[in-house]
Amino acid sequence: MLGGLLEKGYEIKGILGGALILVQDASMYSCALVPDHEALSYKTQFECSVLDEIRSVDSTKSAED
């Protein structure tokens, strides 16, 4: 998946922990080598997941604000 994201124009903008951060416009992915629990080693490919913004809603505000 990492190669596919790079082909689509995503750029590696940094490292967070052990993960590469890829960015294109407002879209972000985190890609990392993950442990293979069966072999007790690391897989030889990156697994990527999209990073979504989490917005909290202030439930104490009234509709009149």
Task: Summarize the model shown.
With 65 residues, the chain is mainly beta.
Number of domains: 1
Q: Sum up the overall morphology in one term.
A: globular
Tell me the span between the first and last alpha carbons: 45 Å
Which stretches are low in confidence, meaning pLDDT under 50 for 5 or more residues running?
Answer: none
Q: Can you walk through the features of this model?
A:
A 4-stranded antiparallel β-sheet has the order 1-2-3-4. It has 1 helix and 4 strands. With 65 residues, the protein is mostly beta strands. Strand 1 and strand 2 (19-24) form a beta hairpin. 9% of the residues lie in helices and 51% in strands. The longest helix has 6 residues, at 2-7. The protein has one domain.
Write the layout of secondary structure elements.
Elements: H1 2-7, E1 11-16, E2 19-24, E3 27-36, E4 41-51
Offer a few descriptive terms.
single chain, mainly beta, four-stranded antiparallel sheet, 1 helix, 4 strands, about 10% helix, globular
